[in-house]
Amino acid sequence: MPRPYPCFGTRLWAVVGAVAVATVWSSPAQADLPRALHDLTHVTPSAPLRATLGTVAGSSTVELRARSRRCAKATPVTLLISVDARRIARVKLHSANWRNVSVPQKLAAGGHTLLVGVAGRPACSRATVDELRLGGRADRPADAPAPPGTPLGPKRRIPIGAAVNWDISTRLDRAEDQAFLGHFQGLTPENAMKMTYVEPRRNEFDWSETDPLVTYAMDQHRTVRGHTLIWHKQLPGWLTQRRWTREEMTAVMKEWISGIAGRYKGRITDWDVLNELFDEHGAWRTNSPWYDALGPDLADMALRTASEVDPGARLFINDFDIELPGPKQDAVYNLARDLKARGVPLDGIGIQAHWSGESLPPEPTLLATMNRFASLGLRVELTELDITTDRFADALQRQADAYAMAGRVCQSVASCDRITVWGISDKDSWRGGVNRPLLFDDKFNAKPAYGALIGALAAG
Ligand code: XIL
Prior knowledge:
Layout: E1 6-7, E2 10-11, E3 14-16, E4 19-24, E5 35-37, E6 41-43, E7 49-53, E8 59-68, E9 77-83, E10 86-93, E11 99-106, E12 112-118, E13 127-134, E14 160-164, H1 174-183, E15 186-189, H2 195-198, H3 210-219, E16 223-230, H4 237-240, H5 246-263, E17 270-275, H6 289-294, H7 297-309, E18 314-319, H8 327-341, E19 348-351, E20 354-355, H9 363-374, E21 379-387, H10 395-411, E22 419-421, H11 448-457
Parallel strand pairs: 4-7, 14-15, 14-22, 15-16, 16-17, 17-18, 18-19, 19-21, 20-21, 21-22
Antiparallel strand pairs: 1-2, 3-4, 5-13, 6-13, 7-12, 8-11, 8-13, 9-10, 9-12
């Protein structure tokens, strides 16, 4: 039986044998939204994509994008699209570039079967289909989170947080303290909660930096994002310098997560539980002792353990380079969807957002990405935002525009309820002061970027 993947009542892809099955539905009843299925699906002559188009009335448009995976350069691949066994389109895919396909259809109310196949010999006729969408109006169950794109009404007040790298017991920089207290509502320890510092020897915890930091945040009524539980970097030598069996590593993980998440239970609102799981091709990072011993199960284990230890904390997957569509974004999306479908506790996706002028995501793309994650019923936050500048005269203004863009996108995604910048002033940024990536200059003066971000985030 196909396993349903819930998403606003929609069932996303489930692969049954070689055939991908999906349900896409819409109706004029409620919100004016198309439904989309975002998963990449490979289609061959013997393994078509089969989808159910649910209650549809009136005009609709069947939309998808496809590209060929042909093996013989000369022959184009022919995509065949049928509804209820009636051919509605034949599309020749001449290249490996994505092609958008849009077929207007008059569909009566009720269920319809959509088949997307390819003509030809199995060996040489293969295509990849993505973003299957039914244009028109779509309904959603009353209890579902607001779907992507829902108008939000008055602008919400969205807090901003900052990463701090203080040893609070010794630091003397009052200017930094004032900048933090004057402008930020949330605090992320930039390094202090990483395993190498907190558990330098197995089961021996050093709270000397983290305790004062959390106490400071509580005293000042700031929220704390815990960062980070499972990462392949900044690990203690005792963990990395040998190999572990599955049983041993399970115990190590339990000790670590129970130790730190238990100590700050109730005081940390959000945990970056899983940090940077995938490489740029969307494959699991194998250069991690966690992965080496536990494989992909590490995700379930870490999330379940964190949830048992601190049931009140929101649990995040956090990663970088997931703003643009591609294999890495798909890997995070697919993992999150799978975890949700299996009832593993997961509350949000953190987009780190370490940007430069060149790597800045286009506004519509970032919006689509955040909506894509939000469509799983998850929060979406920018968790480590910084944007480097060049030395051209208008660099600070362009940076301000980029920060404003981030704020605008967050304001228009109902599930985005915080932006965290990775540091306060340019003098302390991990990306180097010369790149001036943050909201305050090295004298703690607010830069144009600060006003721009606040303006975009301010409640209306
Ligand atoms: C960085 C810190 O900012 C540096 O001070 C430290 O030397 C290395 O780690 N992604 C993450 C963060 O999840 O933990 C990293 O922080 C930056 C990239």
